[in-house]
Amino acid sequence: MKTWRAILVCVILLRISSSCTRDKASADSCPGCPTTVSFKADILPIFQANCAIGGCHTPPTNAGGLNLDSTNAYATATDPGTGNVDTAYPKSSVLWLAVQQGGSTGMPLNAAPLPPCQVQEIYCWIEQGAHNN
Predict the structure, then answer these.
(1) Share in percent of the chain as helix, strand, coil (round to 5)
(2) From the first residue on, what is the mean pLDDT of each consecutive set of 10 residues in the chain (133 residues)?
(3) Total-model pTM
(4) Which residues of 98-122 are buried (b: 16+ CB within 10 A; e: fewer)?
(5) Measured in whole angstroms, how far is the alpha carbon of residue 65 from the centre of its chain?
(6) Which residue, 80, 85, 88, is CA-closest to 97?
């Protein structure tokens, strides 16, 4: 009986450690921040594919007061006073925290988390001043 428990514990620990290694490897495979992250070319397509979909961040729901359709995305994402984007403290930005968490508590809600390189790209955009370029 004790042997069975020891084997089970080893299998669980092995799966946990391999999972952590795989996650770290995928995040490490992202290139560093490019010199300039373009809102229109880099960030908006991420919003369009993952956030500006029916029932989420589009009219009439505008979940969290955030409308990420193509005509409103920049204005609502960077709306002063919302905390969505904080260029002085990027890691405090609500937008980055939400996509960094992903899954059942972050964004996209109850969906596959954004790929690590897209999360990094959003962070880089905020860090670079969240310009509308």
Answers:
(1) 55, 0, 45
(2) 42 38 56 94 95 89 90 94 94 93 83 93 97 96
(3) 0.76
(4) bbbebeeebbbeeeebbebebbbbb
(5) 18
(6) 85
